[in-house]
Specification:
Blueprint lengths: L24 H5 L32 E6 L17 H7 L4 E3 L5 E3 L2 E6 L5 E6 L13 H12 L8 H4 L3 E8 L2 E6 L6 H4 L10 H7 L13 E7 L3 E6 L12 E6 L3 H9 L5 E2 L7 H6 L3 E6 L4 E6 L10 H9 L3 H9 L3 E3 L22 H10 L6 E8 L2 H15 L3 E8 L1 H9 L5 E7 L4 H9 L13 H11 L4 H18 L2 E7 L1 E6 L2 E2 L15 E2 L2
Parallel strand pairs: 1-10, 1-11, 15-16, 15-17
Antiparallel strand pairs: 2-3, 4-5, 5-7, 6-7, 8-9, 9-10, 12-19, 13-17, 13-18, 14-18, 20-21
Helix pairs in contact: 9-11, 14-15, 15-16
Length: 537
């Protein structure tokens, strides 16, 4: 699904287990007119170290991952599916990375400085970095990648993420690149922790052309071996890696869409690690011999429903609000999650700095829902098709929603769709009303802008509100965190009221794994990364 995770596309490199001096987001955003921002490398390397007190890492072995869906492409310039990101974090480096506390940390860019006017950012790149094909991963390569995204003729989905604020990039030496901004942009660094920040080999791209997505070449810890559609993707350790070498010999991402099957495969040691287990399996997995579950709860991941607000019948705001009041979120948390999660009233959980408790969502109020249905012209209810991924949890979600809305005389016909195709159908407007899930980005602008700004590439609801657009522009043009927090509260409250989405719950993020798997850590965007993992013998 979207977990772009957009599982909603959904932002994220190496996981750091060490906890020495903290580089806070306040440090990174404090860019006054008089002082440029320089960030030292410090503890963050492109391969994260083991946690303090942990056993010494052991090299060797292939990590067998139970992947929730197949990939469509391994070209980050054209990637939109969440399922592609775990593989891309193995194959590529990003300019900067996100840590388990959602700090911005060095990766290819080892330090950076913001100009006094906030309109340019100069980065110093790691020297002597090579792509898997032996060519230089230098400032010229970074410029080529950014220029490719910014060229409208290439039709990259990442264009709309960069074009609003980035005028271009200059390479003034092998390790120095300067990004020219159209205006001050507080979310600049965070944007390069995800797809726009993945740097591919220009030489390989020019060699393979449109087939690059099947023959990817990056500078990451691992290099591509093979992709057998609907079966697996395999990568192996890149011995010429410029940073901390991988402990693993390789990673195999085995496509297993059914969470119950993935859970069983962990228990029977057919795979080493997976994500998105069936919630009812988690207690069983926690008790299973040779198995452990690493959790993030609360998480930065939310589930909900969405619709096209520019097409009937959901271009009727009162109808959307009626359904929002008709959803019993507590029942979802109890039945679907077994209590392993919490009610979601909006797109921002309490784990990040921009969360604001003054934002109010919808309570379960069936009587108010019925009044709004009547106001919308549906006194006798209505019928509509609801699309969901055809996984057990996706179908369970749809069936529970179906049962709840039946109390309002709203009849859902469930349309099951292969999980690898659902988001494509959403983007192509082949479906209207659907289940959705997204995860946080390292800056609030990263997710809120792509979902709610008029015409943005992940705005798959047709939502357009000039007030929201104006507030989003205002919030990302100041580096004052307190001011930004207030503006994002206004944005979220307006969006919740307009109801292009109905937020339902934040699930616990659980990673069942064999006890041999060491040094795994969650990032708040919920994209699994395995760069720091090693296998105990």
């Amino acid at each position: 699904m979207q977990r772009r995770r957009p599982r909603a596309d959904s932002l994220h490199p190496p996981a750091s287990g060490a906890r020495r001096r903290r580089l806070t987001r306040r440090d990174l955003l404090r860019t006054s007119a008089a002082v440029g921002l320089g960030v030292a490398l410090g503890r963050y390397a492109a391969g994260a170290p083991a946690a303090c007190g942990a056993a010494a890492p052991q090299p060797g072995g292939t990590l067998r991952v139970g992947a929730v869906a197949d990939v469509h492409t391994l070209d980050p310039h054209y990637s939109v599916d969440w399922s592609e990101r775990p593989v891309m974090y193995a194959l590529y480096n990003t300019l900067v990375s996100a840590t388990p506390t959602f700090e911005i940390a060095p990766e290819l860019a080892r330090s950076w400085k913001v100009s006094p006017d906030g309109r340019s950012i100069t980065v110093s790149l790691a020297p002597n970095v090579r792509f898997h094909d032996g060519t230089a991963c230098d400032a010229a390569a970074v410029k080529w990648n950014i220029d490719f995204i910014l060229n409208p003729a290439n039709n990259s989905p990442q264009f709309k993420q960069l074009d609003p604020f980035l005028a271009g990039v200059d390479a003034s030496g092998p390790t120095t690149a300067t990004f020219r901004l159209k205006k001050p942009y507080a979310g600049f660094l965070a944007a390069f922790t995800e797809r726009p920040g993945f740097i591919v080999s220009p030489a390989a791209y020019q060699k393979y052309g449109k087939d690059f997505g099947r023959t990817p070449v990056g500078s990451g810890m691992y290099q591509f071996v093979e992709w057998l559609p609907d079966d697996h993707v395999a990568v192996k350790r890149f011995d010429g890696y410029w940073g901390t070498k991988s402990y693993l010999d390789g990673i195999t991402y085995k496509v297993v869409p059914d969470p119950a099957v993935r859970d069983t495969m962990v228990r029977t040691a057919e795979i080493d690690i997976t994500s998105e287990p069936d919630p009812k399996d988690v207690p069983v997995l926690q008790r299973a011999p040779g198995v452990k579950v690493v959790s993030e709860n609360p998480s930065g991941h939310w589930w909900g429903i969405q619709w096209r607000v520019d097409r009937p019948p959901f271009n009727n705001k009162a109808l959307r609000q009626a359904i929002a009041y008709g959803v019993d979120r507590d029942e979802f948390v109890k039945i679907m999650l077994g209590g392993r999660g919490s009610v979601a009233n909006g797109p921002t959980p309490s784990i990040v700095w921009w969360y604001n408790p003054t934002v109010r969502g919808y309570t379960y109020d069936p009587e108010r829902a019925k009044r709004l249905l009547a106001e919308a012209g549906y006194q006798k209810g209505f019928s509509a098709e609801f699309s969901t991924d055809n996984t057990p949890v996706g179908l369970q979600f749809a069936q529970l929603l179906q049962a709840q809305l039946k109390r309002l005389n709203v009849t859902l016909t469930i349309n099951p769709v292969d999980p690898s195709n659902l988001y494509q159908q959403v983007l192509q407007q082949k479906v209207n009303w659907t289940r959705t899930d997204w995860t946080l980005r390292a800056d609030p602008d990263g997710l809120l802008r792509i979902l709610f700004y008029t015409g943005n590439y992940a705005n798959s609801t047709g939502y357009s509100n000039p007030t929201v657009d104006k507030l989003l522009d205002q919030a990302n043009s100041t580096y004052d965190r307190n001011a930004r927090k207030k503006l994002y509260a206004e944005i979220e409250q307006q969006v919740i009221d307009d109801a292009p989405y109905v937020w339902v719950f934040y699930p616990s993020e659980d990673a069942p794994m064999r006890t041999a798997v060491q040094n795994y850590a969650w990032i708040p965007d919920s994209v699994p990364r395995y760069r720091s993992v090693w296998l105990a013998k």
